[in-house]
Write a structure and sequence with these properties.
Elements (H helix, E strand, L loop, with lengths): L7 E6 L5 E3 L4 H6 L11 H11 L5 E2 L3 E2 L21 H12 L2 E9 L5 H12 L5 E7 L2 E9 H12 L10 E4 L9 E5 L23 E3 L1 H16 L12 E6 L3 H4 L2 E3 L36 E6 L4 H12 L4 E5 L2 H9 L4 E3 L1 E2 L6 E2 L45 E2 L8 E2 L3 H6 L27 H8 L7
Parallel strand pairs: 6-9, 10-14, 11-13, 13-14
Antiparallel strand pairs: 1-2, 1-3, 1-4, 5-7, 5-8, 6-7, 12-15, 16-17, 18-19
């Protein structure tokens, strides 16, 4: 027997349930020609179990020895009886596990004197909890989007609210559909909680007076109703000469507008929020800038975005440019759909996680209208509300609220496409992209692309690093 080939298996009891970890000599995985991912397909599972169990206080049981040529399967509460689990069994277990998962979103602008220490505190609390997502902190506050089992996900919220700085944060939840909506946990200090050209650390974001006035969902709906009545009037005299000008501004990306927006909003000519320049230039007239040339003191600007944070940041920038009457939708569209349903809203809501798109019924199940049946990614049956939902390539109407990334890695554009164009252009957004050097395969259904090396190594197995 070669040195480093022996190992021991250690069981940990924490009833209920029964947990198990495997403690192996480090030299085993470095020197042994026997143990690898081919001869031991459960190797990664063993490592993961070991990492999780080290974070818990458990009662140790004496070790049991096994031969070095085979690792037997474990019995977890008699649910997995053997190492060769069938596809149906594995799918059932995944579905059962995913049922209680939720996605949580919140942010708060508040002074944090020692953000690095704050990151450490949050990391210690989340140890051993099944949380994946993006949680960023800095001197200006926190911005968080994550998924996990409801117990773990909400425990973090309750822990955070015990801190007076975060006691009144607006927390929004939605169903995760299929387990985690994020691939991993990124919890760290980040210089900018929202990405903008030039950063945002210089903006007075922690001063509420510099941000737009927040409107509750009901107040927002009343303003939309009033705006609709004004638009329906036959002349300006019908509404009075002192009627203020009102502009509804979508502070998102164009591809988000493509699958859902409030009635009456102009499509943003923006593919990345960080490069948004609405109202930040001195141009008097610009077709792509809805704020160009408007009266900055006499115009009410109603701003909305997905969850609210982009509006808070951008309204602060507009305030510095002299815009006086700024209003935002508190909690963004997601909060509005939860409270008011799809009134004045058409389509689905784009979200920045693996789900990509959610119908209004995901936030307010009882608010089914315009043909929604509660199933994600279905479009309204009323074609009159569907004029925005078109294939980017051929312009045909689509039957699905679902973006895809261009198969050309160096393009990676998020776009809407019909199935015919997907086949014809091999998953690309244009003919030029079909001849790109780093071309990924067309993904079926609603799958998302993985890292490039997965496809590179599959195409050129001999070029893969060993």
């Amino acid at each position: 027997m070669m040195r480093g080939d022996t190992f021991s298996t250690i069981f940990v009891l924490n009833p209920p349930p029964l947990m198990a970890i495997f403690s192996c000599r480090a030299t085993l995985f470095k020197t042994s020609p026997i143990f690898n991912h081919k001869t031991c397909p459960n190797l990664s599972i063993f490592r993961g179990l070991a990492a999780n169990a080290q974070q818990q206080k458990n009662k140790w049981i004496p070790t049991l020895g096994f031969s070095r040529t085979r690792i037997p399967a474990l019995n977890f509460q008699n649910r997995i009886q053997r190492s060769s689990v069938t596809k149906n069994e594995a799918s059932a277990l995944r579905s059962e596990k995913a049922e209680g998962f939720i996605v949580v979103n919140f942010y708060r602008f508040v002074c944090i004197e020692n953000p690095e220490e704050e990151v450490t505190r949050h990391r210690l609390f989340l140890q051993g909890r099944d949380i994946q997502g993006r949680i960023y902190l800095n001197e200006q506050g926190i911005n968080a989007q994550y998924s996990g089992p409801s117990e773990d996900a909400l425990a973090y919220v309750e822990w955070l609210k015990d801190d007076s700085r975060f006691s009144d944060i607006l927390v929004q939840t939605s169903p995760a559909m299929n387990g985690h909506a994020f691939p991993q946990l990124k919890l760290r200090y980040k210089p900018s909680l929202v990405q903008m050209e030039g950063g945002i650390s210089h903006l007075p974001l922690v001063n509420p007076a510099m941000r737009a006035i927040p409107l509750s969902p009901s107040e927002w709906r009343n303003r939309l109703d009033s705006l609709k009545n004004v638009e329906g009037s036959s002349s300006r005299e019908d509404t009075g000469s002192d009627q203020k000008s009102v502009l509804l501004l979508d502070v998102r990306n164009g591809y988000e507008w493509d699958i859902g927006h409030f009635h009456g909003t102009q499509r943003p000519d923006v593919n990345c929020f960080r490069s948004t320049l609405f109202g930040l230039t001195d141009m008097e007239v610009s077709p792509s800038d809805p704020l160009a040339g408007i009266d900055r003191e006499a115009t009410d600007i109603l701003m909305y975005c997905t969850g609210g944070i982009r509006c808070d940041v951008y309204s602060t920038m507009l305030r510095q440019r002299g815009f006086q009457n700024l209003y935002t939708l508190k909690g963004g569209v997601s909060h509005y759909l939860e409270k008011e349903g799809p009134a004045e809203w058409v389509g689905n809501l784009f979200v920045f996680d693996s789900r990509l798109s959610l119908p209004p019924s995901a936030y307010k199940p009882e608010a089914i209208s315009n043909g929604y049946n509660g199933i994600p990614h279905l479009n309204p049956t009323n074609e009159g509300n569907n004029t925005f939902l078109r294939c980017r390539i051929c312009g045909s109407f689509l039957s699905e609220y679902r973006h895809r990334n261009c198969a050309n890695l160096d393009c990676n554009l998020l776009f809407l496409s019909c199935s015919d164009c997907v086949r014809e252009l091999k998953g690309c957004c244009s003919m030029n992209c079909t001849s790109a050097p780093r071309l990924r395969p067309v993904l079926p259904g609603h799958r998302r692309y993985e890292k490039w090396h997965v496809y590179r190594d599959a195409q050129c197995p001999h070029s893969a690093k060993v």
